[in-house]
């Protein structure tokens, strides 16, 4: 043991020499770390700590040498973290260690100060579990609180720093926010908030007395109070929060101060919701900030408005008309991201209204949006941007408002027709542009969520339009939207609708087949993925359309081809659909059982298709299993092979040997392939298909082991 040898004393002595300082410091850190098992190492701990505490004056002596100071800080922090439970239970003895780390935290070199972060977190967690906290420790934490609030002051001359320095400092400030929360474990959130507010109040008072106060002195406590928001109990009365809210509107107009104030408001909106008398002053402050010339301030205003409306939505209904006028006058001057924040905020307010009033209000805002995106002949880049922005705004609004339920409010009874008149023109004129295609289809999905069955008469026309645009453009988003339509309306007993779904399915399948014929399927993973979103609801809700259509063999071929993709989500969904088709009840219904009249037709369609596609399916299953399938696909592959073996036994006895013979493997794997064929035949002969899983697993493991052996060794 090092503590019992002359090396121990030599290590501490070496800290006094420049040549050995780094090596001795690292060795001491390692030694402290190795004493984590305190009960087993108390003798050496009792030797380390006094020697270490005696070195505290070196922090002052070496404060001008950042390299030395950094290593001293590392040593003290390692000891503090390792011996934190001794600090908790033997505070008087170990207090100098905590004070030394607090001295490190006070360093002007922020790289050194941040070395202490983890110590304050771990000690705070340990102290927070105690019934009482020693007053000496509390005093240290009070000093640390003041230290870190000082550290979060922006430089007095921000222009003198590089962009990278500014980014690093912002990240550092957020880390300090976490340390302030750690202080709450020891001092209590109310105390920390009170102390931080006191710093703000002092700066404001000095400013009102005619003294020069830098904006950094106001911004720093605002940032700190924002960081503390997560530690505050909103259910309790808190006079300090009341004072904070009262001083915000009168803060200096500096952009950084206004930004910090807005971000603080967005964090304290749960309190505002319980004190609605403050809503007007906060709303006024937020909306006026949208006209600031600083883009970050405008962005913060959108952030604050969103959370104010989300948490105080019911209280803000009387102010909606004010927001409507604000949007009309100021909205056009804002960037799109900031307009979207306002529409999201308005959506939260509408969602709190009685249903009929909400429907009328939503219609009012939607009509305004549509009035800006009325389509004109031809394609113009500027107009396309206006359409994209309008669709994004509408999507944001609809996404927050959600659904009005099954029974549509009277205000919406004719709206579906009006909306579709505009949307169909947009799709017809601009639907070949990918951005407009994406946004149009998302708006359509949300619109169907609003209108429910009231949109049913429009669905055949909607499907026709989406299908036509997919045929003309090949854009996958149209397939995605079609899948959403079928998912919502596939169970409707409506003959024109069923006919429209079948026509859509057949035309989309033909178009996808043409695309994959012209270029490899793997180059169109987005089209494959969204095509599966059509097949999924068809299998679940409209099996007669899926199986009895002449497009079914092509559709099944696409599902099989999807197994070649390296996109796990797509292949997982594809194997699930294939398993659902092969395992359909129509194929396994007892002959004497009463079955739906179309089951025999389903069974024949599936069987005929599998007879044709079976060899390719088995090939892709085994190639994927042995090459690129994710581990979570193993279960689906095994189940699929089991169903194939159960229902197409004779075929599988021909397909599997052929497929395995075609898969190139090293000579070393031939015994594994041979053994699998033996195990496969044994499972069939013994009529115990449970044996297939271990047989497949054994073959897969053999291939994976062979691949591992072929990998070059790291040098």
Distinctive features:
715 residues, mainly alpha, 37 helices
Structure in a nutshell:
This protein is mainly alpha-helical and 715 residues long. Helix content is 74%, strand content 0%. Helix 2 packs parallel to helix 5 (66-82), helix 11 (163-187) crosses helix 12 and helix 33 (599-627) packs parallel to helix 35 (649-662).
Q: Report the uncertain regions.
A: none
**Through-space gap between termini:** 34 Å
Structural class of the helix and strand makeup? mainly alpha
Helix content: over 70%
Topology:
Blueprint (H helix, E strand, L loop, with lengths): L5 H9 L6 H13 L4 H16 L3 H5 L4 H17 L1 H6 L1 H15 L4 H4 L3 H12 L6 H17 L11 H25 L1 H20 L6 H13 L11 H9 L7 H13 L1 H6 L4 H11 L5 H17 L8 H11 L5 H16 L3 H18 L8 H21 L13 H16 L3 H18 L7 H15 L2 H14 L5 H24 L6 H17 L1 H6 L3 H11 L5 H15 L2 H4 L10 H29 L6 H14 L1 H14 L7 H16 L6 H19 L5
Helix pairs in contact: 2-5, 5-7, 5-9, 7-10, 9-11, 10-11, 11-12, 12-13, 13-15, 15-18, 17-18, 18-20, 20-22, 21-22, 22-24, 23-24, 23-25, 24-26, 25-26, 25-27, 26-27, 26-28, 27-28, 27-30, 28-30, 28-31, 30-31, 30-33, 31-34, 33-35, 34-35, 35-36, 36-37
